[in-house]
Amino acid sequence: MIQTKLEGGTTDRAVGRSSTAPAKHEGILLVCAALALAIPCVWQRHIEAMDLPSHVYNAWLASLIAHGEISGVKLVHPLTNVLGDWILSAGLSAFGPAWAARIVCIIAVEAFFWGMFALASAVSGRRVWAIVPFLAMLAYSVVFYFGFLTFYLATACSVWMLAVSWRFSRSRLWIACALAGLGFLASPLPVAWAICMIGYIYLARSISRWANVVLLVTGAGCLFVVRSAVMKLFLCHPSQAHADLFSFLRIIGALEFDPFQMQYLFLAAGVMLLGTAVFLVRVTDPTERFGPLAQLWLLNAFAFVALPSRIRFPVYGADLWFIQERIAFFLVIIFFAWAAKAMRGKGFTALCSLVALVYFVLLFVDQRALNRADEEIGFLVAQLPPRQKVVSSIHDEGARVNGLEHILDWACIGRCFDYANYEPSSLQFRVQTTGPNEVAAWVNGTAVEIEAKEHIVTAEEAPLYSVCPSSVPGRRFALRKLEAGEKTCSFSLPVTPALGRLFR
């Protein structure tokens, strides 16, 4: 090989060695990050994320329907809200419920994390390894622990759409379209959001700076028209955003890192302070102060304030809930993509790593506490004869995300029926009710009533087993057999440790 002399006395062979070494190190770092990111999905017996047990349980119900083992419910094939169920069904038959949940969550978390990494890197023009700890926290933030599996998967596809489309080419456009199709199989909302984002970014780049002001105002006007139309056409609940500290913290994204008890607020405050410092750095750059991502953050913040908190579409039996929580997730995604360029340096990375370490330690403690409750309920259900109807309405006292809401579903898989299962009567998923049955409440209002408060058992529902508080010392739960006219139990108890109970 001919060694061409370069500036400073180096050769092209030397340059080749120096340029490939970082790539090798980066490859090792990538593998280590991917493996570390999966740890929270396997460190406990079950992943306790509010709606996740319900998704796994309904994948089991779908297998029973497919084999003709239950009646009163049917298996349909909608165009959306199916991707997560397909993965769960495949994993359930091959590996069982716990590993099916782990597999789908690992796929979702890895897809979202690396999509965010690719997006932030594309916007910054460099690899954003400095913010990897924060991206890991975001991957396991409130939306993950709400258990919004279909929404989370679709958001992962949408983030990849943004990353791929940041630099336009025809081949990238086809990749983005394929990702949009995949995301739509999970949930249409994040895909529609990503398409609007991509269109806005391309349009903002093609016009002058002053025209961008007009574009921003027009975007806000369009959102107001959408809000008015939705409020007029559908049954809606008004926005829950108010002029208070809680709404402010949600808009700036701090509460995305507050899934359970109050101790997370200290970490959220730390993230907010770091984010404020980065924001001040970014706004000093005149080229970035009013760029497309900054405009889109403002428009998403306006959507958070203006859009309703719940919408009832006529084709479904239940509302679309938690709209503000979903928009807040979008806001944090935009902020990290926009601010990543200013997040650099060993000191910043060390501080991020410390915050992330404390965050994941707290998550481990909370997941362990929820798994202990899960085991207690599983022990009780195991004493019942097979195929009984069981309900639970348990609230984790003081927690923002109620990890106990569908915890009964873990115990019921392969054993009993969760009569308060909301999915079949919502008509939003593959498993749907066809009328009164022995598997699930066929009216969504009944399922919601059982989960939220006391429900009076009807003659058609009896007998019904209800998880109730235990009067036996050392036990937190008991099962009561209820007949017609009796009330189901609804109660709260502290499960995830609050700050004062953290080290007990």
Structure description:
Helix content is 57%, strand content 7%. The chain has 504 residues and is of the alpha/beta class. It folds into two domains: 68-344, no CATH class; 366-501, no CATH class. Strands 6-4-8-9 form a four-stranded mixed β-sheet. A two-stranded antiparallel ribbon has the order 1-7. Strands 2-3 form a two-stranded antiparallel ribbon.
Shape: globular
Strand content range: 5-15%
Domain count, please report it. Answer: 2
Distance between the amino and carboxyl termini: 68 Å
Largest beta-sheet characterization = 4 strands, mixed
Share of helical residues: 55-70%
The secondary-structure class comes to alpha/beta
How many E strands?
10
Low-pLDDT stretches: 1-21
**How many helices does DSSP assign?**
18
Oligomer: single chain
Strand order of the largest sheet: 6-4-8-9
Mean pLDDT score: 90
User: Nearest-angstrom radius of gyration?
Assistant: 25 Å
N to C succession of SSEs: HHEHHHHHHHHEHHHEHHEEHEHEHEEE
